[in-house]
């Protein structure tokens, strides 16, 4: 979403899947007798990575779709172990698809001519066609209750159309690309137990369901041989972080006062050794704030404030709104209008008293009671 904030909505969503029948894979397997692509996942992954590098080079450097502003991709592994990539591309203004004809220049839903484009015809018919539904294919895995679960055949459209509500798909696209880290099932236990007074060992039957662990790998902390952990945790600069030094930057640099915390990396670089922010001279950078769950309390409300507050020099200034210092970040969010309060309900009731009939007013109150989860039944005069 930081990219969307900087470059607006993405223009292209590209998916590329691996194919175990790629000639490069077959060529490598020819040196290994008796093995196929499913037996050598590392070969499939390496060939896929080479083709992915070629694809990103064509898009980002060769500009086959036009000049690109930014791009990102996520690699996933399907249940059969085959990798595939989902990619989002931001094009410059001159190359954005603004009309159906612009889309038709990039995307083709037609089978290439077998005469004029035999290679394209072979690729599409061999790898990109859905097999016929019904008839002699009623035993296909996608047939459920004698109907195609994928809803084929699709209705035919003679021309490309642009949906006016297409921006609603942005959240879906980013959720599609960010499903969380890769996962693996691991079990840590002794599998062999020696019997008493015997050298024979007993093999333990592992119950994979009971021993399933939902884990995430975190990188370890590394120290030099000459370093000790307690002194490192108590060194003077341990409290000087990128966030706290942002306060110091705002005290010294007038330009920083006009930027929110997420905008700081665009114009400044963090010097890890000196623990200071310095003016950026090379490259560009898009800043973003670490996600915080709404259940994390004050940390969540602090994150909300960092998206709008510019140039604070202390935590107290972050909580200050129109000259008033609020006791908590949540209260400051209310003062900024970032959180809903009872004001909108009060206004709704006041307006309803002027124009609504008795039945309409009663329905409004019932709806509010259900929404607010009021346990004690209230009469109309009590609500007024």
Describe the protein in words.
This protein has 384 residues and is α+β, with helices and mostly antiparallel strands. The chain folds into 3 domains: 2-177, no CATH class; 238-336, no CATH class; 343-383, no CATH class. The chain contains 15 helices and 11 strands. It has a 3-stranded antiparallel β-sheet, sandwiched between helices. Strands 4-5 form a two-stranded antiparallel ribbon. A hairpin with a 4-residue loop joins strand 8 and strand 9 (276-279). Helix 13 packs antiparallel against helix 14. The longest helix is centred in the first third of the chain and has 20 residues, at 41-60. The chain is extended and about 75 Å long. The two termini are 44 Å apart.
Give the total of beta strands: 11
Number of alpha- plus pi-helical segments: 15
Q: What gap, in angstroms, lies between the N and C termini?
A: 44 Å
Structural class: alpha+beta
- Average of per-residue pLDDT values: 80
Which blocks of ≥5 consecutive residues have pLDDT under 50?
A: 373-384
Strand-and-helix sequence, N→C? HEHHEEHHEEHEEHHHEEHHEEHHHH
Beta-strand percent range: 5-15%
How helical, in percent, are the residues? 25-40%
Biggest sheet strand order reads: 1-3-2
Multimeric status of the protein: single chain
* Principal-axis shape: extended
Structural domain count: 3
CA radius of gyration is 30 Å
Biggest pleated sheet: 3 strands, antiparallel
């Amino acid at each position: 979403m930081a990219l969307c904030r900087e470059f607006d909505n993405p223009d292209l969503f590209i998916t590329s899947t691996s194919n175990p029948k790629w000639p490069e894979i077959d060529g490598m397997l020819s040196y290994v007798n008796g093995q196929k692509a499913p037996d050598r996942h590392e070969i499939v992954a390496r060939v896929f990575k080479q083709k992915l590098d070629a694809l990103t080079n064509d898009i980002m450097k060769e500009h086959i779709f036009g000049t690109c502003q930014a791009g990102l991709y996520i690699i996933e592994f399907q249940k059969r172990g085959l990798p595939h990539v989902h990619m989002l591309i931001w094009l410059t203004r001159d190359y954005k698809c603004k009309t159906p004809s612009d889309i038709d220049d990039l995307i083709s839903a037609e089978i290439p001519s077998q005469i004029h484009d035999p290679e394209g015809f072979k690729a599409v018919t061999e790898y990109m066609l859905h097999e016929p539904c019904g008839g002699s294919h009623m035993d296909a895995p996608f047939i459920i209750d004698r109907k195609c679960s994928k809803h084929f055949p699709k209705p035919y459209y003679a021309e490309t159309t642009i949906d006016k509500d297409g921006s609603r798909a942005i959240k879906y696209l980013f959720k599609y690309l960010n499903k969380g880290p890769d996962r693996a099932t691991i079990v840590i236990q002794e599998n062999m137990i020696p019997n008493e007074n015997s050298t024979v060992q007993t093999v333990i039957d592992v119950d994979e369901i009971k021993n399933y662990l939902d884990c995430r790998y975190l990188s370890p902390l590394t120290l030099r041989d000459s370093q000790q952990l307690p002194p490192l945790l108590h060194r003077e600069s341990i409290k000087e972080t990128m966030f706290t030094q942002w306060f110091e930057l705002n005290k010294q640099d007038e330009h920083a006062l006009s930027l929110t915390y997420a905008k700081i990396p665009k114009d400044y670089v963090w010097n890890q050794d000196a623990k200071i922010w310095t003016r950026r001279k090379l490259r560009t950078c898009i800043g973003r704030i670490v996600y915080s769950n709404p259940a994390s309390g004050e940390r969540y409300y602090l994150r909300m404030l960092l998206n709008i507050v510019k140039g604070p020099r202390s935590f107290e200034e972050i909580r200050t709104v129109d000259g008033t210092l609020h006791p908590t970040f949540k209260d400051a969010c209310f003062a900024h209008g970032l959180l809903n309060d009872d004001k909108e309900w009060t206004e709704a009731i006041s307006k309803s008293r002027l124009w609504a009939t008795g039945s309409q007013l009663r329905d409004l109150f019932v709806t509010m009671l259900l929404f607010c989860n009021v346990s004690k039944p209230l009469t109309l005069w009590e609500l007024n």
